[in-house]
Amino acid sequence: MNHDLLLASIAKHIQLDEEETVHFLSYIQTKKVRKKQYLLLEGEVNRFAMFVISGCLRSYHLDENGFQYIQQFAPEGWWMGEMYSLITQEPGHLYIDALFDSELLLISKTNLEKLYKEIPKFNYYFRILAEKSLVSYQTRAMENLRLTARERYEKFCLRYPSLVDCLSQKQVAAYIGVTPEFLSKMLHADQELKP
């Protein structure tokens, strides 16, 4: 499998020499998953950080009525994991599955810990990812409290431009926290307002 996308992501933050690159890639596993295939179920321990080469993953929580609350989408070039579970190695609270057939690169928690010791600059790279994830999570939490459904939809479009035309309205609605029917009416009203 081609590792260029992953290496390009890393190169935005740290520089690896050839030996470090080979060593890092020795810890990477490849995985192909089919649409709707689960990578993690609620209550399981997340043992891998996942990088999406192609396709798209999503993480979500189900409430007692079976309603989905999508926390994140991970299209091509994004990392995905249930951070609480990955860090603590305790059972997680999220489901992670594939929205489309996807190709992934995985690094286990065990190998990640080895990598931090063997190539310390990876501490910096993954710290940057963790900080960005925290900022994104907090921003999204505030958006859900402060913004209207239309504004949350606009933020979704800015955050995931490659997914706007790929996802069903049901998926988008679950991400912005409305029913598919409400989203449909809102988008239909927007279309009617266009000249």
Automatic annotation (TrEMBL):
Residues 16-115 form the Cyclic nucleotide-binding domain. InterPro entries: cNMP-bd_dom, cNMP-bd_dom_sf, RmlC-like_jellyroll. This is Cyclic nucleotide-binding domain-containing protein. Pfam families: cNMP_binding. It comes from the Bacteria.
